[in-house]
């Protein structure tokens, strides 16, 4: 006879078995879909072909399983696969690519969802991923066929020759190959240590390449002009040959001209040093003159019309700006008809207004100037030994002692003693004192007088 305890155990076992089977059926056998229970939402994916994808294949998002593949239906232009994504899975952006990939070498396919952004909108029930955002692997048959075609396209005789040549090339080169590998490892290590500068170089190179791309038109124009120049040089080949043939004769004539002008040319060039020093301190004024002279010439030519008549007008601007009066207080007006003895000349009279005052500042002290040249040292060349070299580009020898003492300089010029200056400096007379008087003796400040003039 079955007792009450035994009956209770049997009923408890039956209830536990039913609950277990129900949980297993709903959770793992997907029996809940038949009774209206779903723990997932459906997303449709359009594919050009199945690519080996099967129902119940895995669905991953960023490499993590988030669901299973549902039914795969055939359409007019491809297939549509249902993705059963778990409701507990993280939100998946709608802008995601669905790629059919191989999980292993045996061809186990699955769908991997790869988002383009981390923000919404997100996939929901009824969402669809169009064909443009999907991809399938190449069919194995196509891969095998391509490999077979590649292998069949290789000429066997040429392949055999290449293998033989490679064998000959690497025969006995083990040590060299080992050295090459060692150096390659060292190079890779060094490159890894300098990865940051290399990266910076690549980034900066992008700027350079962008600049070159922006200047593509200029580079193209430069290439076109260079081609025209090369064409012109080719067309002028005869003229160039004639010029090259005539160059030696011209150079000989120029050398003869220089010899004929020696030593007078050196004297002129040396004397121009003084002129250049004077002009150097007046560069600003010369620049102003050279800028305004063309304007004055242009204005002067426009004053005369075609009939030879002079057309010009005068604008009185005496008080624009106002004249300078500060600094002339010690000077009194004196009538020009007054011939009586007057006060001493006021040598301190000058314009004491600054140039930025806006008045007409006058006086040589306000003229643009580069300064005063350094004064020469008296006797700087007279006390130098014979043969010393002058500073500067001329490199002329200094005065000889005979000329410095005044006994030999004039004799070469007037022929009295038959002696001539042996150096260019004998003719220049360049010294710190700088004046030739009498028979060529050096005194004073840079003039030639008397017999040496």
UniProtKB/TrEMBL annotation:
Annotated TM spans: none
One Pfam family cited in the UniProt record for this chain: Mce4_CUP1
InterPro entries: Mce (IPR005693), Mce/MlaD (IPR003399), Mce_C (IPR024516), MlaD_Phospholipid_Transporter (IPR052336)
Location of the Mce/MlaD domain: 40-115
Mammalian cell entry C-terminal domain span: 122-297
Any one annotated GO CC term: extracellular region
PANTHER family, per database record: INTERMEMBRANE PHOSPHOLIPID TRANSPORT SYSTEM BINDING PROTEIN MLAD-RELATED, MCE-FAMILY PROTEIN MCE3F
Name the record gives this protein: MCE family protein
């Amino acid at each position: 006879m079955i007792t009450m305890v035994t009956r209770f155990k049997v009923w408890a076992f039956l209830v536990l078995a039913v609950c277990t089977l129900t949980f297993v059926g709903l959770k793992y056998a997907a029996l809940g879909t038949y009774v209206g229970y779903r723990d997932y939402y459906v997303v449709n994916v359009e594919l050009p072909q199945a690519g080996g994808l099967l129902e119940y294949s895995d669905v991953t998002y960023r490499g993590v399983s988030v669901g299973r593949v549902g039914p795969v239906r055939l359409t007019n232009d491809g297939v549509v696969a249902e993705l059963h994504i778990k409701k507990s899975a993280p939100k998946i952006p709608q802008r995601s690519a669905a790629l059919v990939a191989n999980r292993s070498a045996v061809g186990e396919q699955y769908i991997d969802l790869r988002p383009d952004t981390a923000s919404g909108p997100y996939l929901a029930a009824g969402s669809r991923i169009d064909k443009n955002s999907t991809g399938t692997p190449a069919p194995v048959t196509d891969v095998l066929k391509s490999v077979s075609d590649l292998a069949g396209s290789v000429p066997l005789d040429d392949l055999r020759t290449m293998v033989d040549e490679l064998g000959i090339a690497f025969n006995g080169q083990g040590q060299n190959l080992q050295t090459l590998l060692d150096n390659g490892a060292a190079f890779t290590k060094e490159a890894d240590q300098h990865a940051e500068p290399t990266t910076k170089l690549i980034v900066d190179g992008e700027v350079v390449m962008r600049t070159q791309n922006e200047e593509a038109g200029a580079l193209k124009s430069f290439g076109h002009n260079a081609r025209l120049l090369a064409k012109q040089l080719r067309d002028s080949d005869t003229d160039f040959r004639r010029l090259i043939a005539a160059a030696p004769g011209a150079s000989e004539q120029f050398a003869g001209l220089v010899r004929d002008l020696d030593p007078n040319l050196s004297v002129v060039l040396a004397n121009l040093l003084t002129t250049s020093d004077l002009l150097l301190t007046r560069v600003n004024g010369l620049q102003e003159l050279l800028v305004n002279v063309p304007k004055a010439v242009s204005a002067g030519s426009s004053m005369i019309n075609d009939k030879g008549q002079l057309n010009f007008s005068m604008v009185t601007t005496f008080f624009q700006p106002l004249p300078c009066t500060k600094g002339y207080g010690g000077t009194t007006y004196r009538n020009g008809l007054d011939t009586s003895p007057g006060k001493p000349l006021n040598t301190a009279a000058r314009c004491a207004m600054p140039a930025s005052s806006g008045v007409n500042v006058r006086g040589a002290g306000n003229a643009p100037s580069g300064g005063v040249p350094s004064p020469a040292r008296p006797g700087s060349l007279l006390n130098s030994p014979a043969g010393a070299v002058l500073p500067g580009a001329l490199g002329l020898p200094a005065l000889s002692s005979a000329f410095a003492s005044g006994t030999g300089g004039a004799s070469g010029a007037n022929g009295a003693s038959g002696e001539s200056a042996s150096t260019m400096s004998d003719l220049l007379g360049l010294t710190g004192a700088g004046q030739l008087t009498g028979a060529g003796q050096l005194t004073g400040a840079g003039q030639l007088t008397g017999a040496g003039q």
